[in-house]
Design brief:
Layout (H helix, E strand, L loop, with lengths): L1 H25 L25 E8 L4 H12 L4 E6 L4 E6 L5 H10 L3 E2 L1
Antiparallel strand pairs: 1-3, 1-4, 2-3
Length: 116
Amino acid sequence: MIGNIIIIAVIAVAGAFALKSTIGHLKGEGGCCGGGSGSIEIDKELDSPVIEKRTYKVEGMHCDHCRVNIKNALNRLDGVKAEVSLKKSTAEVSLSKDVSDDVIKRAVEDVGYKIV
């Protein structure tokens, strides 16, 4: 009888830790996608004045590693400076050149996410 109670208590504690970890992950805490928190974020300044700003809704971001992947993919584009919000699931893009939505969408999709 006591052995069963101990087993149930151990399972309950393990379940509580798993639930806490899952909730944190869904809030964007911790690493996922195999990247952990060691991703190098590319910050960028535009060479020319901003001519347009756009905001895109992004699907598939689960953690900071995801956010950095999307930001880096967009910042690699010529004439694009991006800031990506995990909490809002958005990419805010400043453009110093005419860059089509298709080019931006393709850059995001190429790293495994989706513009909606």
